[in-house]
Amino acid sequence: MIHPELATVVESRTVGRLHVRMRLHAPRLARETLPGQFINVRCGPQDFSSRVFDDWADFSDRLADRQDPTRNLLLRPFAVHRAWTCGPDAGRIEILFKVVGRGTKVLAGMKPGDTLELLGPLGKGFDLDWCAKLSTAVIVAGGVGVAPLFMLASWLRDHDVRTLVIVGAMSEHEVPMEVADSRVTLSFMATRPEVTITAREFEEIGCEVGIVTMTGRKGYLGLPTEMLDRFLHFTEGGARGEAGVFTCGPFPMMKAVAEHAADHDLRCLALLEERMGCGVGVCMACSCRVKGPGGTPERKRICIDGPVFDASEVIWNDR
Amino acid sequence: MTAEKGINLKVRLAGLELDTPLLVASGTFGWGIEFERIEGFASDAVGAMVLKGTTFDPREGNLSPRIVETAGGAGILNSIGLENPGVEVVVREYLPRLAGVRAKVIANVAGSTVDEYGKVAARFDSQDRVDAVEINVSCPNVRHGGMQFGADPSLCAEAVAACRNVTKKPLIVKLSPNVTDIRAIAKAAIDAGADALTIANTWLGTAVDVRTRRPILGNVSGGLSGPAVKPIALQKVLEVATWMRERRLDVPIIASGGIMTAEDALEFMVTGARAFQIGTALFSDFRAPEQIIGGMKSLLGELGEHDVNAVVGTIKLT
Predict the structure, then answer these.
(1) Which residues from chain B sit within 8 angstroms of residue A307, using beta carbons?
(2) H or E element, residue A244
(3) Which of B29, B65, B69 is facing A73, going by the closest CB pair?
(4) pLDDT at A69
(5) CA-based nearest residue to A315, from A250, A244, A255, A253
């Protein structure tokens, strides 16, 4: 159930250019968040409301707190990148974000031991009943769009689904995860880069990883969709059972991924992003147009009807 | 809390008995059930909920982005554009879900034409679950209707009269602050049959991305709300309350504009508001209603008051 949770920052480190990975102790969210769901984060000093008061004697103190100028008014939505329910990180979640504005700037400045307030889990995640039936999954992430897809990859691997993860970025410095040089090359790629790079995090859970960069200095040169296309052509006709495509990233990339998936008659799930006001479905700020039953357009709220949508219902020419 | 047990927060508003003077503003509480999904949401702090603005036909609303926070977290600009599925869907699908809700339910009526205001109000009039009707003559985010009705006294009067003619339910008119003299519009609304006034809707504003040189909002302009507007909303309430006092008019004012704390709310009540709405505060914290009502009891206790109604209009101007 959607609930507030006071989390403690366990670790915060920068990865690549302007990306931050922040590990938080939030046991209930770690337990309850499903792949594709997100959380709202109060990017600023902890609000008074999260403390427990037995009386209202210090009312004026709390008043001052609420008008703290460093406080952001709106909570900011973040994908849950990882969640641990056992092992040394049990009870922790990790968010992965790019510093783009005031909220993320404040958040990036928080240190281990700091507390911050979360609200979640929010939204509907991926269709896991369908995911469980897959033999092969291709995950296509653009930049920080990889954030919500690790939990999915992890879930898929736990269910023995062969999973290829394609991450696209401008350069190797802008891959929002730790990357390492690698000797592994992907069998379905005709041309090989001089230096292949990989994200060990995905490899560790048994995914195949293809990192694509626009510079091509490291990683495969090109667009994520080019790699997706090669893979789909390569496997076509192969007895690999049902395959599915998952994507999150810049809208034009997701649109292209959806088209490629449709060309191969594969179902594609896209995780959409939008500026949000409330995150719980009341403000209509994140509303988008989708194809309803019979193809007639209808409006959905990304925060509660999504953020995961079937790519075939998204109206890709809307932006 | 024992000292505060004896404090009365019940208010009467244009024939409505509210458990608390706190209303949740139209457009910030969806269709009334969404917040129930949050563990710990204290619905008993809410005296009445105002539903999302409803038109006769469905409306798609504006292009995104539709929301942006302003400098220092002082406010938010929104340009939703009255997205709603139309009154028929609201009546058939959304109202029945509110059957068990203890708070009063106020429908919010919007339109592009006088005729549309009347048709929507008439549809709500036949609904038992609707306790009152708020007319939105102040939406800054739609091209036709909305604010233009709130900026012209005669148009405002026509829209209010169209609703008055079709409903006996309490009629609240939500005024726009984007006018030279809000008292002229208030007068028009009262003369046309308004039972109460909500003062006020959002202020027109915009924001520009200097890197792309484009407006941030898809609709170019939006409505500003939040702590940034509180002093100017309070000024509007002061103007209307003073004008009413001079004319011995007693039409309840529902304050709205940047209320984040109990003290903010009491400022408006002392100035003359009988009740108040919160909106932006809810986005910031779903516990706002509970905190404001709890804080209000405490603050009233501190002031030696046992009844919130006793502070209404007690501002000392001389």
Answers:
(1) none
(2) strand A243-248
(3) B69
(4) 45
(5) A255
Mean pLDDT per segment of 10 residues, for chain B of length 318 residues?
A: 72 96 97 94 96 96 93 90 96 96 97 94 97 89 71 93 97 95 96 97 95 95 96 98 96 97 96 97 94 94 96 95
What's the pLDDT at A45? 61
- The pLDDT assigned to A64 comes to 42
State residue B289's pLDDT score. 95
Beta strands in A87-229 (DSSP E): 92-98, 115-122, 136-142, 162-169, 180-182, 196-198, 208-213, 220-221
**Calpha distance A276→A303 (Å, rounded):** 8
State both tokens at A136.
Answer: 């092969």
Check CB contact of A87 with chain B, cutoff 8 Å. no
Evaluate whether B135 touches B119 at the Cβ level (below 8 Å).
no
Identify whether the C-beta of residue A254 lies closer than 8 Å to the C-beta of residue A247: yes
Q: What pLDDT does residue A57 have?
A: 40
* Residues in chain B within 8 Å Cβ distance of A69: 72-73
**A3 contacts in B (CB within 8 Å)?**
38-40
Residue of B nearest to A289 (CA): B60
Tens-place pLDDT, residues A123-139: 999 999 999 999 999 99
What is the distance between the terminal CA atoms of chain B, rounded to a whole angstrom?
35
State the smallest CA–CA distance between residue A57 and chain B in angstroms: 8
Query: Cβ atoms within 10 A of the Cβ of A137, count?
Result: 24
Residue A123 and residue A307 in contact, taking contact as beta carbons nearer than 8 Å = yes
Among A319, A136, A293, CA closest to A310: A293
**Minimal CA separation from A51 to chain B, in Å:** 12
Q: Is A2 on the interface with B (CB under 8 A)?
A: yes
Q: Is A282 on the interface with B (CB under 8 A)?
A: yes
Report, as ranges of residue numbers, the positions in chain A whose pLDDT lies below 50.
46-67, 69, 237-239
CB atoms within 10 A of CB B73: 24
Active site residue B139: yes
Model's pTM, two decimal places?
0.92
